[in-house]
């Protein structure tokens, strides 16, 4: 009887020890998870620490800390690379602007009188290509600025309706040049959001520019009271592959009126920064870019 009693006490003691051991390990694992979450969300060089002497837990923490150090190293390399990329693109944009301005100035000075019909035709082609290159240069400059999307931006309560209307009006001359009469339907209800006004303008400008680039003389803009804006146009220049790469940097759809693929990539970056959503759909030869804030 005594032996069984002692065995019972030993078993009970071991059970209680193991129970408290499991509880302590469980609490330490929870603390490790909380510490990891805080470190990943904040800009800090802190590492995970524990009070337990458990060898396996210490081994786990060492592995996590080594991974955090490697992650910080990669993050630093990425930031340095992004900074160098931005600087290079900005310098290239500035270097291109000056000769392009000079070229356009001389083109404006050329008198068409006395030129043959073929020479006038070639001159128009040169003008178009210089304008395209100027647009690409400006978008390269915009792209270099968009790399700094992590920077804190001033946001205010703004009426999306007004910004959209004003942006469409600013494209009047270009739409007229391409013989496009847009169909615009904007809800009467004022849609107010906390956004950066200049950023919202840039989003709309890039999407409308893209619509003009692919449009076959028709553009539709619809805005709903829930903050959704749809930009649609008919085009036969797209396929599923092009649609999936629509927001990729530098991707260009062949045979488009203009040959650059930066605008929509910048638009997507800015929409993401505004905590909105953007998507592209292509059905029955109709391309629709849908944005929601």
Low-confidence stretches: 254-260
Name the helix and strand elements from N-terminus to C-terminus, one letter apiece. HHHEHHEEHEEHHEE
Average pLDDT, rounded to a whole number, is 79
First and last CA, distance:
77 Å
As a percent range, the share of strand residues is 5-15%
Find the structural class using helix and strand composition.
Answer: alpha+beta
Radius of gyration: 30 Å
Counting DSSP H or I runs of 4 or more residues, the number of helices is 8
Number-wise, the strands total 7
Based on CA inertia axes, which overall geometry fits?
elongated
Side-by-side strand order of the widest sheet = 2-4-5-7-6
Helix share of residues?
A: 55-70%
Largest sheet: 5 strands, mixed
Quick tags:
about 290 residues, alpha+beta, five-stranded mixed beta sheet, two-stranded antiparallel sheet, 7 strands, about 60% helix, elongated
